[in-house]
Amino acid sequence: MVSKTREAAVCLCGRALSTKRLLQRNSVDKSFQDSLDAEERHYERTAADKIPAKLARYFVTRAEFDAGYQEISALEAVLQQLGKKDQKQT
Fold it and tell me: Tell me: the pLDDT tens digits for 22-68?
């Protein structure tokens, strides 16, 4: 069975906009209400403001980056000094 076409404003992120107005216009349509409810549950699980917290473990903080950069720079300096010593010996 194909249901009737309904208009809904949807954000690029997939979230329905103005759900109160949408529900008022489609108040007798239970399947439309169910769809909006499912969208709301999905949004609550995957909301953009929750993404950084989920991804934080895969990234370093600025302080961690700076500390790592300093360590690598110090190691490069040591390697350069060792390279200069090897060139002098040959």
Answer: 666 655 567 777 777 787 887 777 776 776 777 778 888 899 999 99
pLDDT of residue 1 exceeding 60, the answer is no
Task: Indicate left, alpha or beta for 14 from its phi (over 0: left) and psi (-120 to 50: alpha).
Answer: left
- State residue 84's pLDDT score: 82
For residue 3, the SS3 value is coil
8-state DSSP, 26: T
Token pair, residue 25, equals 């216009």
Residue 37 parent element (H or E): helix 30-46
Q: In the chain, what are the domain boundaries?
A: 1-59, 61-90
Instruction: Give the torsion sign (CA, 75, 81, 83, 86).
Output: negative
